Amino acid sequence: MQDFDYLKPDDVYLDAACQSLRPRPVIDALNRYYTEHNSCGERVKYAWGQTTDSLVEETRTKLLKYLKLKSRDYFVSFTLNTTYGINLILAQLPPNRFQKVITSDIEHNSPFLATIAYARQHDLPREVLSRNEDGSLPLDADYTNALVVVNVVSNIDGRTLTNLKDLVKTVHKQHGIIILDAAQALAHNSDLLHKTDADALCSSAHKAYGASLGVIVARRELIKILEPNIIGGGMVDDVDRDRFQLSAQSADHIYTRFEPGLQAWGEIIAFGAALDWLTRLPRAAHESLAHHSETLYDFLSNHPKVSLLNHAPTPTQSFYIDGLDSHLVGDSLSDQGVMARTGYFCVHYYLDHVMHYPPLIRFSLGYHTRASDIEKTIALLERMLG
Questions:
Q1: Fewer CB within 10 Å, N or C, the chain?
Q2: Which domain range does residue 175 map to?
Q3: Does residue 128 lie within any of the structural domains?
């Protein structure tokens, strides 16, 4: 694709689940911030700052539109990454609101560790539910007054939370709260998030073709039960000797609840460019990614020496090779210009302690992936496998 023209012909990047490559419009937007209006947002009156404020506000609006959510119901805050966003919300949730904490077995360490810490800190029981093969969660579980934190798409095999909407309804019917880890969903499975009724979702722009940045999309009603404990500049309208007035009390500045201190203004603006880019992607780009995913899946699923975790072709595919150390395979691929992740991908509990898999190899594709990338990767694997 022309927007990734900087990618060398021999470089094969198959680690988009960790960090996607950035298309030229995103890089250009970030460069424009630094070279044309490098300034603090929401603090200055000069023209550069006004430009920054306008573009940052546009990014908030674009994200809600991308998710098909209404600004009267949800607001957007920017953070460091998905992990930070989840922890930031949990740190402000009153423990007496919940009877238990619930997550699932295939979670990234981001929600998995955060729920362990929250449950320990507040002496709450914690349940780890098993996901079904199709990625769904059981609706007959007891979600009464539960804090539920689960992913929408797995970073192991691209498995999706197929019954997301029903799960949200079930949790709310039983007076629980549900927070979504949308890190792997925002770029390639955003349709799952459209018009969500979840209480909040956390994601990372750097997994959605944007610059390094985290994002929280939260229901406005959530603010009413939060207990602020991380306070800083940019969050207050007034400060006296022993008191302060939070800006988040105003509907127009509610997002400041999760934004202490100066923000990554350039990265936020670049994320706005990424959302524009994703929205305008031609059908051919989606079809190309699906085709490459299928080609890779067909090879991996049919080779007798390959143990593939996927049950269906997705852009993210994890496997191991009988008799070969995955880290050595990764090194060998790297020597030939193929960049792939090896190990447990921050899903240690499920992959190591539940399934007892050896370290794995993960190929994660993106809109930058070329047919030649897949051909080269398959050819290298065939040579290794003999």
A1: C
A2: 37-279
A3: yes
